[in-house]
TrEMBL record:
This is Cellobiose phosphorylase. GO terms for molecular function: carbohydrate binding; glycosyltransferase activity. It comes from the Bacteria. The keyword Ribonucleoprotein does not apply. The keyword Glycosyltransferase applies. Residues 624-808 form the Glycosyl hydrolase 94 catalytic domain.
Amino acid sequence: MTQQGWKFQGDQGEFKLLHPENYSYLYFPLVNEAGMMSAITPNLHGEITTSHNTFLMEPVSVESLHNSKASRNFWVHIEGYGAWSASGNSARQNAQQFSNVKEQSYMEAGFLWHKLTRENSEIGLKAETVNFVPVGGDQVELMKVRLTNTGNSPIQLTPTAAVPLYGRSADDLRDHRHVTSLLHRIFTSEHGIEVQPALSFDERGHRINKVTYSVLGSEASGNAPTGFFPVAEEFIGEGGSFDWPEAVVTNLESVTKSGAAIEGYEAVGGLRFASTQLLPGESTSYVIAMIISDDRLETERYTKDYLSEACFDALLEENKSYWQDKLETISFHSGDQEQDLWMKWVTLQPILRRMYGNSFLPYHDYGRGGRGWRDLWQDCLALMVMEPAEVRYLLHNNYAGVRIDGSNATIIGSKPGEFVADRNNIPRVWMDHGAWPLLTTLLYVHQSGDIDFLLQPQVYFRDSFVKRCHERDLTWTPELGNKLVSRDGELYEGSILEHILLQNIVPFFNVGEHNNIKLEGADWNDGLDLAPDRGESVAFTAFYASNLIELSELLVHLEKSSNMKTIELAEEMIVLFDTLSSAVSYDSIAEKHALLDRYYDSIVPSISGKKLKLDVLKVAEDLKRKGEWVIDHLRKNEWIANKEGYEWFNGYYNNDAERVEGDHPNGVRMTLTGQVFSIMGGIATDEQVGQISNAVDRYLKDDQIGYRLNSQFGGTQQNLGRAFGFAFGHKENGAMFSHMTVMYANALYKRGFVKEGYDVLDSIYRLSADFETSRMYPGVPEYINEKGRGMYTYLTGSASWLLLTQLTEVYGVKGHFGDLHLEPKLTKEQFDQEGNAHVETLFADRKLRIVYHNAQRADYGQYRVSSITMNGQPISYEEYGRGSLIERSILESLPKDGTHSIHIILDI
């Protein structure tokens, strides 16, 4: 697709944007595994941090990016001209932006580096500024500025690097901002400035601080700065500012030298370098390091490791190779190279989510780092493809957050498997949380064949909240710890399968007045948070129903494959399998509630620790009966038709127990979420899927912003959720919310509605990649607003779902209890001119290049697999559904090194 904004350069996903300063809200991530997290804008604004409590630069939101004057900056004072900023961030250059005086500028970026080039023809000076975060163990961001004389006359210049050093917690931005500056202890050394606050003032209390924030620099030759401007008010001058500082504008001499110690002021990493003359065509470079360290710097080591042009260039190449290698784990090759390159950036996003969590980028200026419960599971979807070695460990640890009542911890620690009690004393349950772990675990089991994972033991989370946070157990105190113990004080562990069963069976009985599962605090849409008493989520009732069927089939497979006749479960759980003891009427809400109360009473304040062996097939039959009852209930009671003749599934009931969707005096009300899980889980019949698709196109599809999350409800809906307080077309109220839109496409593909699914995915790509409207770099945003702008870029769970959908549904590469299942659903547009489409991915710990050859360019539904070869040799496979199965043993016979080619001929 033709780009009016950024354009890809080459075939590695690198892109270029002319005059990037003309666009607001743009930023780019720079990060490493050591925990350095940066954001950088076209004028080098942004932030640098390692946690909520340790910001080197001031924490920013997107509005700060164009309103704040504090940024990474590199100044030159030019004899006969005055002050000029290499980043374009000066009062003079900002004033010229909307005039006829125009500097040439462009940004280039790749995985994961950022380059800004600016040239002023009047001066005859070009500045190339490259920033990246090295992949090593230090928390450091590097910047190199290369100045080149592009004119015909010599230029006499004096360079000054200037990076404001905030050096404290985000909480201090507005809470005691000045008081916390009094804690600053500022030190200068040969190559730079360090700030080590004496204390940290944050939620942890007033504590002795060791964390140090530094800006070091040198000339390319290794020469140190000639002096420093460490105090912000002295650098900018009385009446000055960071975009027109007195020290640069008047070319003040730097009086502070190495070895100084200053206390009690806002700091800046102001490094003055020696004046120099650049002859025409001549260049000079400077390297700047921005560092967060656990204590005062080993300045000699950092100088040696980072402060030379040779070190910078070598580390940059290492960084590029590291990210390219990581992202080469999966790549797509279709008839649209632009979209394939765009998908490389989508592939990066789940990794960024793992590293940043949901914080520390300008749109994500909320939270204190880390991820939520839902994020743990959905991010693992992509990690199974991108970083599979870690997934089993992560999944196992995640299950330690499940409570014995089927709910889960909502405060996630920074380490895998670390969960803490709610710090704000707010009891809350998101009703959808129990549904996601099975989906992710099943993907793992199918990809790996590791069905024994289900039988691994794991602890349960314990805090004061019991009975799905409806009551408190006052006998529990934090000193008792956050792990469930039995009545005799022994740590209790249950199998992963036991955890999954609890998460899915407890909600089955936790129903509202219409016999759908209660909405509780909210479901996937956090904005539906005002219906805790009488609200119901029909959408996720459908998800849980399909989970119950999946669990039933999983147990049957376990029994057959492992000859496992019994399953061992906590004795208190027997009541939940009512058909094995005393069956209740599922039509009776009262009987469901009474059963659930009996279970709750049996586990509060503790459990016995004893386990019972249950017949696997009888448990499977119990689950199947529950799932089938829900499916029948939804089909009979929640399928709605409106006056225009469109039909779909109702998704919700509000806090007045009123059905949310359908005809309404304010217009037709419809939610996309209400359709996704009924399609994906098989609740909707094939005929109903077609009807839903028509209704979605009628009421939710908008050519300007894509598939809306909901239609216009009108009013603030205080009986449903805060989302409706947002302006319509924004965020959870009627925007194109990528996460649910991608899941809608996934559901359509799963059910064989490939053309419809393709249209949905194609719309997401075209809306996101249309820079003139979306105003975002390559990738998928969290949502697209009413104007078509991509919002909340980089950190979104939709990237995991998009990557997974592209691999497992579009290219049809997935597992089946460890075997390779190939079932392509590519449309004719997705094959190249030779009729080929291929994907490279990991499976069975081997790198595979899976090539589909469609010589006739037939469309989906017309072609079938006619032959399969591996590394040029025919292999055996069996037909499975509409696809083919290759036994895992065949793949495991291959060497682990190199890439193995699987070639599939598609024929009519």
